[in-house]
Design a protein that fits this description.
The chain has about 400 residues and is an alpha/beta fold. It contains 15 helices and 14 strands. A hairpin with a 2-residue loop joins β4 and β5. α1 runs parallel beside α3, α10 packs across α11 and α11 packs across α13.
Length: about 400
């Protein structure tokens, strides 16, 4: 059977079709990615497809994820690809969902209740779900949840310092995100190091063109994640502010009458790299202009690196040292300058980057980037979130039998 997987990022849509007979007999047959979905920047949006050893790139305006999904479904139809099931990554299921589920009317109602928990991601994922249901009402769809891997974060790390009655009433806690990506990294790093998972401590950086986060992983389990109750806090991201003093939002509401819905959009869609640079939410555009001595772009890059290094350093401290530092997703894999700046002056904790290996890494395969003297393995690891989503679908089907 063929399982189509959609993975919506905040400014991208990745898809893959797997021919899957069992977890051990799963083959990718077609894949692609829509880039710069809804992005304001220097370069145009485009969608790429890879099928039967050939690559195709279509440059076209892609205003939203719904439109990107339509382009994917049309391409699959043109090439005669039959689909049996469709799986989706759902960023935050809150307290409603802890496991993957097939979508029905009742599940759909609960998914709608989760929209405010990830206002950039959850709504666009449901747009794609609706589009698939409209075009292929006979095909069953399911969702997997990005928060599951972080369920092992200890109580003292996921609880907020708020009154107990508020915590109890509303269920506020850190959920953590990019769990599908981190679960794959936690599985593959021990194989690279040829050590048992229970003996490895690592920091992993999921750096996307939209959302980014850092995770502390010990013995194959999540110990902490830079995101929180929502995907807003943590690193400086494309359009998200990351960590800020919450009093700023309260001050704008109380003193100047800013509406909550405006602040929600401002913090999620108009801040971060876009807010500081004033022209693009894509770090690649900003790096290009830094070479031309644009002050705001240099500031945006410096802020991005500072926040990233701060989280890496704090997690190294929490873990008591690390064995590996891993980078993944588009920026983590294909931007050597970011990796180089992050690893500068990090010899104190055993991190020493080989600049030549770093520049040569393509991002298409696992690459080892550290010098021989480095005590920490530095790795770039392609994300395999889509495979994880496919395997979750197989588990659901097996449970039904």
């Amino acid at each position: 059977m063929n399982i189509l997987v959609f993975n919506c990022g905040s400014s991208s849509l990745t898809y893959k079709v797997f021919c899957a007979a069992s977890p051990d007999d799963t083959k990718e047959i077609i894949s692609g990615k829509a880039h710069r979905v809804g992005v304001k920047g220097k370069d145009p949006s485009f969608i790429e497809h890879r099928f039967q050893g050939k690559a195709r790139k279509d440059i076209a305006p892609i205003k939203n994820h719904d439109q990107a999904a339509i382009m994917v479904l049309q391409y699959l139809s043109e090439n005669g690809i039959k689909i049996d099931y469709i799986g989706h990554r759902f960023v935050n299921g809150g307290s409603y969902f802890k496991n993957s589920v097939f979508i029905n009317k009742d599940i759909l109602k609960k998914l709608y209740l989760c929209l405010p928990l990830a206002p950039i991601h959850n709504p666009v994922i449901l747009e794609v779900v609706r589009e698939c249901a409209k075009r292929f009402p006979q095909i069953k769809q399911y969702v997997t949840f990005d928060t599951a891997f972080h369920s092992t974060i200890p109580y003292h790390a996921y609880t907020y310092a708020l009154p107990k009655n508020i915590i109890k009433k509303f269920g506020f806690r850190k959920y953590g995100f990019h769990g599908l990506s981190y679960s794959y990294i936690a599985r593959v790093v021990p194989q690279i190091l040829r050590r048992a998972p229970g003996k490895i401590k690592m920091v992993a950086c999921h750096l996307g063109t939209g959302g980014s986060s850092v995770a502390a992983i010990s013995k194959g389990k999540s110990v902490d994640n830079s995101m929180g109750y929502s995907p807003l806090p943590g690193l400086m991201m494309s359009t998200r502010c990351g960590d800020i003093d919450p009093m700023l939002a309260i001050y704008l509401m109380v003193t100047y009458g800013y509406r909550p819905d405006y602040l929600m959009d401002m913090l999620n869609k108009e801040s971060g790299l876009l807010g500081i640079s004033g022209f693009s939410s894509d770090i690649r555009d900003i790096i290009h202009r830094v070479s031309k001595e644009e002050k705001q772009d240099k500031l945006a890059l410096d802020m991005y690196i500072h926040r990233l290094k701060k989280y890496i350093g704090s997690y190294i401290t929490i873990l008591g040292g690390i064995d590996a530092l891993a980078f993944t997703d588009d920026i983590g894999l294909r931007n050597p300058l970011i990796r180089e700046k992050v690893c500068e002056d990090m010899e104190w904790c055993g991190i020493e980057l080989d600049k030549r290996s770093n520049r040569k890494a393509t991002g298409n395969t696992i690459s080892i980037l550290n010098t021989k003297r480095s005590k920490v393995k530095i790795l770039s690891i392609p994300a395999e979130e889509e495979l994880a989503i496919c395997l979750e679908g197989l588990k659901l089907l097996e449970a039904k039998r």
